[in-house]
Design a protein that fits this description.
Belongs to the glycosyl hydrolase 74 family. GO terms for molecular function: hydrolase activity, acting on glycosyl bonds. It comes from Streptomyces cupreus. Keywords: Carbohydrate metabolism, Glycosidase, Hydrolase, Polysaccharide degradation, Signal. InterPro entries: TAT_signal, WD40/YVTN_repeat-like_dom_sf, Xyloglucanase_GH74. A hairpin with a 7-residue loop joins β22 and β23 (328-333). This protein is 0% helix and 37% strand. The radius of gyration is 26 Å and the shape is globular. The protein folds into two domains: 49-414, YVTN repeat-like/Quinoprotein amine dehydrogenase (Methylamine Dehydrogenase, Chain H); 424-729, Methylamine Dehydrogenase, Chain H. The strands form 14 sheets. It has a five-stranded mixed β-sheet, with no helix packed on it. By secondary structure, the protein is an all-beta fold. The chain has no helices and 56 strands.
Length: 730
């Protein structure tokens, strides 16, 4: 996720406000910001199916067929069993509120089926905004918001741990919220105001784990604590809502260092807890499962398989079956040698069966889950595990890319329709061919979208497979030729001669490519490639050039380190590069062999400045300079003029011209008035119309945007956690 400078006015849902005690004042709720009425557009996801880490699933205990899911960066969803589909609940969060798209925790009220609570906040770092609590009376259709004075971390270590938000079992007006750095908070007015719990033993936390779970057992509330060194207490309990004490006799040692999740079997009065030696999802190498009898306080270890040797892992999810006392399921996590599994017991944990051993996986609806092979994996990063309270054989678990479900404990398939969480970084809309869209994402590489309404039939691009794409480019005058780069196990670059349907790896690559693959460009006829190298920590390296389809590479000393190469769409001898450190546009007239400075004195100091070339024209360049606005050059970057129609431009792309227009449609994420939104211009940026609306904002959308060169009005928008959104005029 990239930081962004706030725009001039936020778009928010209203919130009830109040005063939080103990030095934690609540921020007053802000009213919904007004904006110009958008031109009518219908927005949908280009279907991939999942693709991100699902960190929690919560079945409602008193409503059949109702469930909720949370993700680390892509908001929350509501499941409708009648339609077998997830509905996104937080797409209304706008540009200034991008940090709230990560959901730290969820809670429902068993006594009031319409009530839903979300604790939101993606990062706990100093540069991120504080967290917030969203509360709904209509299952997430509308929200009321209270801003907190503490930070949450839905995309940080421990994000797959238990729900840190809980409705008190004795009083529906009382809520508990566990935080990473600031101990335990309590609200007595349904989340409108919050106060620090001064008597909680675990506060404050320096490591960023703090409270890892909250669970109710009859009239008591239990809280897991993630900062224990394995010798001290990490599970606390209150029976009166005021006094907290360490639970006697709790397990200790490395395998029980961090309590991950908990579930209470009301019929047998047993509380089940999973543990690991680290919060996860990465880094776990030991773990255990324990059962606490709440009647007599007796602890029993019920670990299905103990980690050890080459089979190192932790334990993650846990759920109990309210219809069948003593039936419990737990999951392993970070188990790479033997692959993660779900264990099921029908006798309170005395014996276990691994469901993976008999599982039949059907990923035909989301073929990318084969990961370039013939068979999918059962799961990894399994921390979200849930059992339908109305159907003992309806079990689901989240992974780093999907949500698997079963109705018979044997046959499994993605239960993911409507849930799209890809973090998208590249988009190309070809002018010809079967696919109208190619996309590149941070977690699932490159996709060839042969349709927009179903997951790509070819799955992710293979030969090689990329875990994360860093570059994607098409030769403007030879659209069958496409190149891509990224983090791969068997090479970091590939080319296609059939528009991205099939791929072949570059025959060679610079040594730095293994550790710092960056963006790539191909000139108009595909005869020259420019590959830039940037390490994930920001270190910039020289660019390299190839004129033999990636077989050999030569350093280009005159290319500015870290810049993104831009090919002229009409002249194969021309490349451009924008040096964001100095605010200089450089150009090459020898197909990328050398670069010289042209325009200088342009905005500098931000790596997110982007140059885009208008299709079909030579030397027609546009510079999106974020809050510095938009600039245009018609002389190949020798000079730029500022465009006065908008004051901020974050990303820009082109599509088919409107009927009668003499210039391609321009699509932009930027600000023409007060709000950052998606706009279209049909007159060369003289005027703009907003084409998204207040219910379709998707947080951070500043990565890339492009129109369809074959369909006027259709636009593809990359989001950070809500996949590829595409809009069409209604």
């Amino acid at each position: 996720m990239h930081m962004s400078r706030p725009t001039r006015r936020a778009v928010l849902v209203g919130s009830a406000a109040g005063v939080v005690l103990a030095g934690l004042p609540s921020v007053q709720g802000r009213a919904q910001a007004a904006s110009a009425a958008p031109t009518g557009y219908r927005w949908r996801n280009a279907v991939i199916g999942g693709t991100g880490f699902i960190t929690g699933v919560l079945f409602h205990p008193s409503v059949r067929g109702l469930a909720y899911a949370r993700t680390d960066i892509g908001g929350a969803y509501r499941w409708d069993d009648r339609t077998a589909r997830w509905t996104p609940l937080l797409d209304h969060l706008g540009w200034d509120d991008w940090n709230l798209l990560g959901v730290e925790a969820m809670a429902v009220d068993p006594a009031h089926p319409g009530r839903l609570y979300l604790a939101v906040g993606t990062y706990a770092q100093s540069w991120a905004s504080n967290g917030a609590v969203l509360r709904s009376d209509d299952r997430g259709a509308t929200w009321t918001r209270t801003d907190l004075d503490v930070k949450l971390g839905a995309n940080e270590d421990g994000r797959g741990a238990g729900e840190r938000l809980l409705v008190d079992p004795r009083d529906s007006d009382t809520l508990w919220l566990g935080t990473r750095h600031d101990g335990l908070l309590k609200s007595t007015d349904r989340g409108a105001t919050w106060a620090a719990v001064s008597g909680f033993p675990g506060a404050p936390s320096a490591s960023g784990q703090g409270v890892t779970l909250l669970v109710a057992a009859e009239r008591a509330v239990y809280a897991g604590w993630g900062d224990s060194d394995g010798t001290g207490a990490n599970l606390y309990r209150t029976s009166d809502g005021t006094t907290w004490q360490a639970v006697p006799g709790q397990p200790s040692g490395t395998a029980a260092r961090v309590p991950i999740r908990a579930a209470y079997d009301k019929a047998t009065r047993h509380l089940y807890l999973t543990y690991a030696n680290a919060p996860g999802p990465n880094g776990q190498s030991d773990g255990s499962v324990h059962r606490l009898c709440t009647l007599d306080g007796k602890w029993t270890e019920v670990t299905p398989v103990k980690p050890g040797g080459d089979d190192a892992f932790g334990y993650g999810g846990v759920a109990v079956d309210p219809r069948r006392p003593g039936t419990v399921v737990v999951s392993t996590n970070n188990r790479w040698a033997a692959v993660d599994t779900v264990f099921r017991s029908t006798d309170g944990g005395r014996t276990w069966t691994s469901l993976k051993d008999s599982a039949v996986l059907d990923v035909s609806e989301t073929p990318y889950l084969k990961w370039g092979g013939d068979a999918p994996k059962f799961g990894w990063w399994i921390q979200a595990l849930a059992l339908d309270p109305y159907d003992s054989k309806h079990l689901v678990f989240g992974t780093g890319a999907t949500l698997y479900g079963t109705r018979d404990l044997k046959n499994w398939a993605p239960q993911i329709r409507g849930l799209e969480e890809a973090s998208v970084v590249q988009l190309v809309s070809p002018p010809v061919g079967e696919a109208h869209l190619l996309s590149g994402s941070r977690d699932i590489g490159v996709m060839y979208h042969d349709t927009l309404t179903a997951s790509p039939s070819r799955g992710m691009a293979t030969n090689p497979v990329f875990g994360s794409a860093t570059g994607l480019a098409q030769a403007a005058a030879k659209p069958a030729y496409v190149v891509r780069t990224g983090w791969g196990d068997h090479g970091n670059g590939a080319y296609s001669d059939d528009g991205g349907r099939t791929w072949a790896p570059f025959a060679g690559q610079p040594d730095i490519a293994r550790n710092a693959p960056g963006p790539i460009a191909t000139n108009a006829d595909g005869s020259a490639l420019l590959w830039v190298f940037v390490h994930w920590d920001g270190t910039k390296y020289p660019a390299y050039r190839s004129t033999d389809n990636g077989s050999t590479w030569t350093e280009v000393p005159s290319f500015p380190k870290g810049a993104t190469p831009v090919a002229d769409p009409a002249d194969p001898t021309l490349f451009y590069a924008y040096d964001t450190d100095t605010g200089t546009l450089l150009a090459s007239t020898d197909s990328g062999l050398s670069f010289t400075a042209r325009a200088t004195g342009l905005p500098s100091g931000d790596s997110q400045f982007k140059v885009v070339a208008a299709p079909g024209r030579s030397g027609d360049l546009w510079l999106s300079a974020k809050w510095n606005g938009l600039y245009r050059s018609t002389d190949g970057g020798a000079s730029f003029s500022k465009v006065d129609s908008c004051w901020a431009s974050y990303t820009l792309g082109f599509g088919k011209a409107a009927d009668g227009a003499d210039y391609p449609a321009i699509y932009q994420v930027g600000s023409t008035e007060a709000i950052t939104a998606v706009h279209r211009s049909d007159d060369g940026a003289k005027s703009w119309v907003r084409i998204n609306d207040d219910q379709h904002q998707w947080g951070w959308i500043g990565e890339t945007i492009t129109g369809d060169p074959r369909v006027y009005g259709r636009v593809y928008l990359a989001t950070n956690g809500r996949g590829v959104q595409y809009g069409e005029p209604t």
